[in-house]
Design goal:
The complex is a heterodimer of chains A (about 170) and B (about 200).
Chain A: H1 3-7, H2 11-20, E1 25-28, H3 38-43, E2 48-51, H4 56-67, E3 72-77, H5 78-83, H6 85-93, E4 100-105, H7 117-128, E5 133-136, H8 143-155, E6 159-164
Parallel strand pairs in A: 1-2, 1-3, 3-4, 4-6, 5-6
Chain B: H1 4-12, E1 19-21, H2 26-32, H3 50-60, E2 66-71, H4 72-77, H5 81-88, E3 93-99, E4 102-103, E5 109-110, H6 119-126, E6 130-134, H7 137-149, E7 154-159, H8 180-191
Helix pairs in contact in B: 1-7, 3-5
Chain lengths: ~170, ~200
């Protein structure tokens, strides 16, 4: 196994972070950066997967789950996050929903020169909404997921975790 | 076409202890309901999300009956949620939709293809096993008790008279007496949910 493979963010580690933080529902729309999570999540009895077909609907769904006392996590791609601006504003921020958004960072490159506008604008988008975010590139960064959960709880606001995929070969 | 307030009064006779998300019927509902801590009137946090919010609430609270009064404009903005609801099959979810054929709060412009679209057929095609449509109070009042006794998810399209608002938003009388956050807090307190 190469060093890169050893360092890669494994789905088991991400799932363990979800369980550690008491996630009950994953509201999601599949993306290429986190597709490796799907089978594990599907097999995990403590999780209910709620698939939506437009990312904005994830925020209102998560808001309803939170109102009912559950702990949702939103799993979407950066492209869909940007499509979701009004729902993020109205349903999640406006209703003080402490939800963690795991966002596939399509187009991300460590060297900072990208050719994908999905990567160009996502951090600017999050900054425009004043959403705190954390970057995870590999397994060593996985603890930042718990930091995001703690911050969401403390601030009663959405907090994002950007899942960078450089090690998975999409860039 | 039905009068929304009268329709809601008829529903209220059969409410029982249901949690009600009144959607754009909220301004009438808060004057009709006598279980205010089980009402989730949110106004319009972001258009198109009422059904997904209510579905989330229904999934979180499977022991409670959850009734939503959605709208045609909201449904058209997030119609894909019908497939998600049908997939999740919340047995406690009753999805009523007020269809006034217009965007009433922006001045009454038409909703696309409003007079032709059959929302209950869309819902059924998405996988709701029970879907109905009514355009008069008499038929609705005859059927509502039976509908509420069926397992969800149930979809009911209801033709209602438009109530157009033309006053600029800043000049409108605010009908909501509680903030969205307060509404959720009151519901959670009622249900014993730690917020």
């Amino acid at each position: 196994m190469s060093d890169a493979q050893k360092a890669a963010l494994s789905p088991e580690v991400v799932l363990a972070e979800m369980k550690k933080n008491g996630v009950t529902h994953v509201v999601w729309l599949p993306d290429s950066e986190t597709n490796w999570l799907f089978l594990l999540m599907q097999a995990e009895p403590s999780l209910t997967l709620v698939g939506v077909n437009r990312e904005g609907l994830a925020f209102s769904t998560a808001s309803g789950l939170h109102a009912g006392g559950k702990k949702p996590l939103i799993l979407i791609q950066n492209t869909g996050l940007m499509e979701s601006g009004d729902s993020l504003r109205g349903w999640a921020m406006g209703m003080n929903v402490p939800v963690v958004l795991m966002v596939g960072y399509r187009g991300w490159t460590r060297h900072g020169v990208n050719t994908d506008t999905a990567a160009t604008y996502v951090e600017r988008f999050l900054n425009a909404f004043n959403i705190q975010y954390y970057l995870i590139e590999d397994g060593a960064d996985a603890g930042r997921i718990s930091i995001a959960f703690e911050e969401a709880k403390k601030t009663k606001r959405p907090v994002a975790v950007l899942v960078a995929d450089e090690y998975h070969g999409f860039n | 076409m039905m009068d929304t307030a009268e329709l809601l009064k008829i529903y209220n006779r059969h409410r029982g202890n249901a949690i009600v998300v009144p959607g754009r019927g909220g301004k009438h509902w808060i004057k009709i309901s006598d279980k205010r801590n089980r009402d989730v009137e949110l106004g319009d946090p972001a258009m198109g999300g009422h059904a997904s919010f209510a579905m989330g609430l229904a999934l979180a609270l499977p022991q409670e009956k959850l009734v939503l009064f959605d709208s045609d404009g909201d449904i058209q903005m997030g119609m894909g949620i019908l497939a998600t609801i049908a997939e999740q099959q919340p047995k406690n979810f009753y999805h009523f939709m007020l269809d006034n054929e217009i965007y009433a709060t922006t001045g009454g412009q038409p909703v696309p293809n409003a007079k032709t679209i059959k929302y209950h057929e869309v819902a059924r095609a998405c996988g709701y096993t029970r879907a109905y449509a009514y355009d008069n109070l008499e038929t609705f009042s005859i059927n509502v008790e039976r509908i509420l006794a069926e397992p969800g998810p149930v979809f009911v399209a209801l033709k209602v008279k438009p109530e157009v608002e033309n006053t600029p938003i800043g000049g409108r009388v605010k009908w909501r007496k509680r903030s969205q956050v307060q509404v959720v807090q009151d519901l959670q307190k009622e249900l014993g949910i730690a917020g």
